[in-house]
Amino acid sequence: MNEQTWAPHVTVAAIVERDGRFLLVEEHTSDGLRLNQPAGHLEAGETLHEAVVRETLEETAHAFTPEALVGVYMTHFGTPGESGATYVRFTYCGSVTAEAQNRALDPDIVRTVWMSVDELRAASERHRTPLVMRCVDDYLAGKRVPLDFIQTHATAPKAGQGAAPRMN
In Å, what is the CA distance from 95 to each residue of 14, 52, 54, 88, 133? Predict the structure, then answer.
């Protein structure tokens, strides 16, 4: 694998539980229709918090308020040592407001669904990835990290003003 070009994909996901049911999206994928938490990629210039709020709104038409981080998950698709894709997923839990009427969902989203944990388990063959159930299980186990655990540094040196700090 070419270490110079490899970079993980940073994604966010939202777990929303209301009255014992979880908010999910049914979406078109290369493997057909799949179930997933509202989720997507971190975009340039935004914080993880902003990304999960944006993705939830775009995929469900619900405004999301993060309350805690459930966990950070890493998955690699492909053969070890060869090209593939690595995803680092930050999963938050929180609440949503009522669905915004007449708001279009992302093109790949077919619909939103509310499912009980038993319904979700019974549909495991339709999960986008094993992380769908893993994140719900961690949420149900009470795993929570305060939001201030994630720190975002608002400014960094501009090009030509010094090297970027090394983050280990």
Answer: 9, 12, 14, 23, 19
